[in-house]
Design goal:
This protein is an all-alpha fold and about 425 residues long. Helices cover about 70% and strands about 0% of the residues.
Length: about 425
């Protein structure tokens, strides 16, 4: 079953909003988690640590939420191909750059302005994770890398969430090529090939490509491809899920939850961090896929995800993801120690949501409109005019290409109200 031309998956927009909220909550928790000994916020650090070990952890699972972003991006970006539409690379690239890059570069500009005003300030009661950013001036090379977005550079000194946008932008440049195997190959073959590509990326990251993140993009390709495969086979997957029994749904759901919430324990037992992190990502990806299938197949879940606050959260999710660290770092540096961090963290959440809404209205929507405008076909330079055969030169009729370029195509002949001129009697 193919998606309808105008079908929009609101349930997935809401899921993206919840994933963005999880990233925000994770960074709020990290602000407390590494509070040093003797800090007045050690109690908060212990509570955040217990939360991290509890079944409630998925509500603030930051890295896991990024895997959901990648799968959802693959799903949404592949829909034109799945619908059978022609997708020229130029318009696709233009719309993608406007969608990702313009809000991103606006956030980078705000971040450097905030650093110029507040950089160098330290909050002694908080730990290294909070105090490391905004401590040194960016070099010219770093500014250029932030402007280009697709290079390999350090993200931690200013806005750590940019790491995922680097991979997202790189994959966007390649996505039309990714759709060739997705649309032409059987899904087991496609999945096997890109699992191999992911393994290659992991191996390169741990060996010859150490110190850069280019090989990491090879690893993350699998999640975009899985999202595209879900879109292509959505009808079959949803039908399969709906035909299964409730006990099997429960088993699959519990397995997905365990993989999503606790795959991170692999790094506790594996001496190779790079291999452990990428293996964790794959397990989290399995849990994310099961969650997405359940949301697509369950009408009850869809009614819950259609709740207006969740839909609103989905709309502003990209701006919320971009801006929340800027708000957090600036607010705490300005107001602490006069105001307790326990009060500043919820205030940062509220301010982040408000600023994200303003950014959505003032930056994201105009950027998307600009992308659609720039990618749309240009108006015709010539008005289609029907040239009567008696008025057209023989050369014009012989050279169809010149006729099309100069006079328009004769396929839509308007009804003529004039009688064509007749040749005079006795003349050929």
């Amino acid at each position: 079953m193919l998606p309808k031309q105008d079908e929009r998956f609101t349930v997935l927009d809401s899921l993206r909003g919840l994933a963005a909220l999880a990233v925000v909550l994770w960074h709020l928790a990290l602000t407390l988690l590494d509070a040093p000994a003797g800090s007045p916020y050690r109690l908060g650090a212990e509570v955040a640590g217990y939360w991290r070990l509890s079944p409630m952890y998925p509500l603030m699972a930051g890295r896991e939420a990024v895997i959901i972003f990648f799968v959802l991006s693959g799903f949404v970006l592949s829909l034109p191909w799945v619908r059978g539409q022609r997708v020229p690379y130029g318009p696709f690239f233009i719309k993608r750059v406007c969608r990702i890059y313009l809000p991103y570069i606006a956030t980078v500009a705000l971040t450097f302005v905030a650093y110029a005003l507040l950089g160098g300030r330290v909050v002694p009661e908080l730990g290294e994770w909070f105090n490391t950013p905004w401590q040194r001036d960016p070099s010219a090379a770093e500014v250029a890398n932030y402007a280009l977005l697709v290079g390999s550079f350090e993200h931690e000194p200013y806005n750590i969430v940019i790491w995922s946008l680097v991979h997202e932008m790189r994959v966007s440049l390649l996505f039309p090529l990714l759709m060739l195997p997705v649309m032409r190959w059987r899904w087991p073959v496609t999945l096997t090939v890109f699992l191999g590509v992911s393994a290659l990326g992991t191996l390169l990251s741990a060996t010859v490509a150490r110190g850069t993140d280019y090989a990491g993009t090879l690893h993350y390709l699998i999640f975009f491809v899985v999202g595209a495969l879900l879109a292509k086979h959505r009808g079959e997957v949803v039908a399969w899920w709906q035909e299964r029994s409730r006990p099997l749904h429960l088993v699959l759901g519990m397995t997905a939850f365990m993989l999503y919430a606790y795959a991170r324990v692999l790094s506790s037992f594996w001496d190779a961090p790079r291999l452990a992190w990428d293996a964790e990502d794959l397990l989290v990806g399995v849990g994310a896929v099961v969650l997405i299938v359940w949301l697509l197949a369950s009408s009850r879940a869809q009614r819950v995800m259609d709740w207006p606050p969740l839909v609103f959260l989905g709309r502003i999710s990209y701006s919320l993801y971009l801006l929340h660290l800027l708000v957090l770092f600036a607010l705490v540096r300005i107001a602490s120690p006069a105001v307790s961090v326990y009060l500043l963290l919820p205030a940062a959440l509220v301010l982040s949501v408000g600023l994200a809404w303003l950014s959505y209205r003032a930056v994201e929507l105009p950027s998307m409109r600009l992308g659609k405008y720039l990618a749309s076909p240009r108006p015709q330079r010539y008005t289609e005019v029907w040239v009567e055969p008696a008025q057209a030169s023989p050369r014009l009729w012989r050279d169809r290409r010149a006729y099309r370029a100069g006079r328009g195509r004769p396929s839509q002949r308007p009804p003529s109200t004039q009688t064509p001129p007749q040749p005079e009697q006795g003349k050929l």
